């Protein structure tokens, strides 16, 4: 973790409360952006953890709190599979968040996995640049998860993308998955207005401890690359995920 960036930990007793806090954070980031720019842009995460968050955001509790028609939805990483594949991050978000909210197709920016991985990454970089032109690509919110091997987005241990210094999207072959991934680089994530990890479950506790407390070893713990250039990085965790953090891992908002 960069020295000038202090992780802000939001720890709750149970995952339901973490999800509620994360949903509030999402809402507040969206409302701030709409007040300032008339629209909000978010890069969604994939995998298992965000599915429940997406379902909560699409539920009656949050549906009316966010001006969804002003949103633009991108993906911080994507698996190189068709959109209909159960592994597709886009497919999961579509089913859990985008379709239930009636988000229009023109608000959704999916990675085109029908192209080669390199072309898909290049095309996605171009979509992002077009969306933000003439400004820097600065997402209002980037949502992240954490793998038990300390990867985030598709920044996997010991992959060349960890050393890319441009803020763009890259294709990467991940040996341990024997598959391609398309991912935001760390510099693209770090120039966002807000960056938040959502992590819950005891199986993530060791990864959380390594990323937050060990000396910087980005090859081993790629999530240590995440250090927004303005503001702090936020970590929304349940007590189980924070259980290896010692005194840092105490509940901040018990209900
Ligand atoms: O492969 C991925 O993994 C991470 C963590 O996912 P989880 O299933 O352990 O919650 C996720 O953040 C990333 O978007 C996804 O593609």
UniProtKB/TrEMBL annotation:
Lineage top rank: taxon: Bacteria
Annotated family: Belongs to the glucosamine/galactosamine-6-phosphate isomerase family. 6-phosphogluconolactonase subfamily.
Protein name as annotated: 6-phosphogluconolactonase
Gene Ontology biological-process entries: carbohydrate metabolic process; pentose-phosphate shunt
Keyword terms: Hydrolase
Function: Hydrolysis of 6-phosphogluconolactone to 6-phosphogluconate.
Enzyme Commission numbers on file: 3.1.1.31
PANTHER family on file: 6-PHOSPHOGLUCONOLACTONASE
One GO MF term: 6-phosphogluconolactonase activity
């Amino acid at each position: 973790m960069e020295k000038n960036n202090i992780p802000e930990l939001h720890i709750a007793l149970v995952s339901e409360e973490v999800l509620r806090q994360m949903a509030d954070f999402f809402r507040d980031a969206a409302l701030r952006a709409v007040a300032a720019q008339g629209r909000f842009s978010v890069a969604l995460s994939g995998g298992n953890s965000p599915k429940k968050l997406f379902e909560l955001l699409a539920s009656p509790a949050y549906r009316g709190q966010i001006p969804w028609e002003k949103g633009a939805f991108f993906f911080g990483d994507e698996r190189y599979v068709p959109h209909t594949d159960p592994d597709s991050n886009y497919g999961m978000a579509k089913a859990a968040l985008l379709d239930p909210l009636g988000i229009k197709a023109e608000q959704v920016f999916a990675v085109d996995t029908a192209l080669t991985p390199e072309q898909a990454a290049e095309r996605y970089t171009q979509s992002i640049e077009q969306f933000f032109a003439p400004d820097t690509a600065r997402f209002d919110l980037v949502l992240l998860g954490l793998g038990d091997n300390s990867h985030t987005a598709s920044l996997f241990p010991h992959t060349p993308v960890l050393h890319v210094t441009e803020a763009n999207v890259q294709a990467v072959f991940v040996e341990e998955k024997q598959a391609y991934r398309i991912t935001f680089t760390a510099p693209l994530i770090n120039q966002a207005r807000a960056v938040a990890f959502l992590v819950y479950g005891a199986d993530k506790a060791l990864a959380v401890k390594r990323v937050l407390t060990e000396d910087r070893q980005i090859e081993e713990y790629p999530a240590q690359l995440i250090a927004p250039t303005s503001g702090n990085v936020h970590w929304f965790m349940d007590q189980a995920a924070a259980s290896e953090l010692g005194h840092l891992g105490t509940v901040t908002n018990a209900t």
